[in-house]
Amino acid sequence: MRLRGYDYASQGAYFVTICTYRRTCLFGEIIDEKMQLNQFGQIAEDCWQQIPKHFSNVDLDEFIVMPNHLHGIIIIEYSVTQKQPGTTERFGNMMQPGALSTIVRSFKSATTRQINILRAGPKSPVWQRNYYDHIIRNAISYGRIKYYIRHNPLSWQVDQLHPNNPSKW
Questions:
Q1: Which of 63, 97, 142, 145 could form a disulfide with 72 if both were Cys (CB 3.0 to 4.6 A apart)?
Q2: Global confidence as pTM
Q3: In whole angstroms, what is the distance from residue 169 CA to residue 153 CA?
Q4: 156: exposed, middle or buried (C-beta count within 10 Å: 0-12, 13-18, 19+)?
Q5: What is the pLDDT of residues 55-85, one digit of tens each?
Q6: What is the 3-state secondary structure (H, E, C) of 100-164?
Q7: Which residues fall within 8 angstroms of residue 105, CB to CB, at 6 or more apart?
Q8: 3-state class of 84 per DSSP?
Q9: Which residues pair with 74 in a beta bridge?
């Protein structure tokens, strides 16, 4: 899923999609083409908005918590580490401070911990393993992705992540 050899701790904008475990609609529902967050969805949104407080090199742009996934744009403003030549961050390897995988892993951990306190299930999974990412390379792509995120609730019934629709994921 990751671009081989790319430094995901480097400055740039990244579009991420993070899905709930088994695509369970855990965060609320779409009513009248608007996302209505439940208590768990509010936790996910709050944790997402807290990311820049935990990662000083990160800013956030457009995002949305959907019933069973989250879309968001993470902007890494600057690299916080000096990497050794030839090393890359890959999911499952040692955490690299400020890297996209570290940011996502920390977000998923925080939301899981808080949600599981409320549902009294300390080992219950909230998220699927891994996540989808896309490196945003230009302003046109950035604009399309922002539009997609903002309007995602409007297309929920035909969304590939809707639990009633076949998905390539």
A1: 63
A2: 0.87
A3: 19
A4: middle
A5: 999 999 999 999 999 999 999 998 876 544 4
A6: HHHHHHHHHHHHHHHHHHHCCCCCCCCECCCCEEEEECCHHHHHHHHHHHHCHHHHHHHCCCCCC
A7: 95
A8: coil
A9: 14, 60
